[in-house]
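We modelled the chain as a single entity of 344 amino acids. Its sequence is:
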Amino acid sequence: MATSTISTQIQLVNRPVGWPTHADFRTVTVDLPELAAGQIRVANEFISVDPYMRGRMNDAKSYVPPFVLGETMGGGAVGRVVASADDAFAVGDVVTHGYGWRDLVQEDSAGFRVVPELPGISLSAYLGVLGMTALTAYVGLLEIAKLKEGDTVFVSGAAGAVGSMVGQIARLKGAKRVIGSAGSAEKVALLTSKYGFDAAFNYKDGAIKDQLAAAAPEGIDVYFDNVGGEHLEAALASFNDGGRAALCGAISLYNSTDTPVGPTNMMNIVTRGLTLTGFTLGNYWNHLPAFTAEMTAWLTAGQIVFDETVVDGVDNTIDAFLGLMRGENTGKMVVRTGELVPAL
């Protein structure tokens, strides 16, 4: 079991304008003190990089406070307890937490959650298919968009961590047709060959509105939006009466320095009786038990598949995040922080 007390951490030092760069971050090493009562020390095995983090780099009011300059980047992570001053946490326990971009973390135990190890499944799954990513898909599709059996579903950014889960959950819950967009021919092929989408298209190949109309000639009932912009306008054009959208993200706009232009066909919301609902996961944690039960069953039965893009080394976390912003990931992007800590 690891005994080091030196923690390598990535901190935000500038508010990015447009695309973030390495100059907006710094890497520091911290010598952790002796454990205080009620604290635990955890060697992270995987840390998460996610699109929402770009928004938190801005000093703007949002659903969560912005990252503080000069402090270590927060975010999801999973690792093993290597030292404990709380009897509820044993050395070797696997825990998830939100302390983010560091290889070794020491905090009050209240900030950690013990999770079970599943045979043959990497602990990184707790950052994706068994974690916040897939829970976002589950809540957005079922609670926000209120998927009904027989619906036609369109997912933008469908080869990403959230999108790939949305499509598979829709199929398992009885959608009639599931359509996805992605940014390369390889990702488009993956959607139909591995994730069970009925149709998919490359949004770079032509007008999204036209490609969606061709893929959904009978229209769509549900839209799960990860991208915004032209994708949202295309969905508004294809909606059937009474359609519902779960607005989860707008990655196409996150690094733009121009004033965004909204869809030109917003009147469709009125004439077709559409419902567009934005959401953030923090208001829906009450769905975690139901999600955990269903997703664990689907995963262990082989009914859900997932991909990860793994970047090695905590020092490469910034590169992983920038790669995520450029769409270089298939499925969940995670950073493997170093040598994995063996189970006891």
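As a brief sanity check on the tokenised model: The mean pLDDT is 92. The longest strand covers residues 39-48.
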